[in-house]
Protein: VOC family protein
Organism: Pedobacter agri
Amino acid sequence: MAKQIFINLAVKDVQKSMDFYSALGFENNPQFSDDAGKCMVWSENIFVMLLSHEKFSSFATKPIADTQSAVAGLFSLSVDSVDEVNKIVENGLKAGGTEPNEIRDYGFMQQRTLEDFDGHTWEIFFMDMSKFPTDQPAG
């Protein structure tokens, strides 16, 4: 079996969050979804589980972080072009997300940040390795 990643997020409104992630381009896998949790598929090996606070708490031993006021993690998704970065973020903004800062251009990588309703932070980026600086000093 291929290695996979499942990112589990506590959300206040499961259906509203599913609609938001659908707008970003995720697809729902109903086989692993119910009223308290939705499995959202980004790619063959990357999944985001949107879990009600009650369901999330059944897996956790610590309190749920308030991601509206503190960052619990930065989740990054690579895409194939700057246009795709812009499309995903614009769709997320139309679906009710927020963009907490301006686009970042590192020369070889362009990145935009998008937050969902619960404050979960996503970095959507395109990286062109042909523009990656090769004269980096050794650290």
